[in-house]
Amino acid sequence: xxxxxxxxxxxxxxxxxxxxxxxxxxxxxxxxxxxxxxxxxxxxxxxxxxxxxxxxxxxxxxxxxxxxxxxxxxxxxxxxxxxxxxxxxxxxxxxxxxxxxxxxxxxxxxxxxxxxxxxxxxx
Length: 123
What we know:
Layout: E1 7-8, E2 13-15, E3 20-23, H1 25-31, E4 34-38, E5 45-46, E6 51-57, E7 61-65, E8 70-75, H2 78-81, H3 85-88, E9 97-101, H4 105-108, H5 113-121
């Protein structure tokens, strides 16, 4: 269910080696039906562990936290009109932003698929 090539955070975000960031399947299930996504504009600086946007569901609003330091280079514009895609394909077409890493070594410090699965198994 969780792609091997991604790294994961305890806040339930994933990031790929190219800087693509999204929320995990676990996160979208916890949120329920997603109705709105608030994302930063390209050029926005982001910091590890700091909120850069939010996802709103029928149940709650949840912050999205950056898994790495860097700069937003691209935003998934499709989510502005179809936020429900996050419920349908959170690890694929419903990515949130692309970030240019300030420090590529940060990627290696995030959880692997096995680490993340063990983490959510304990929740």
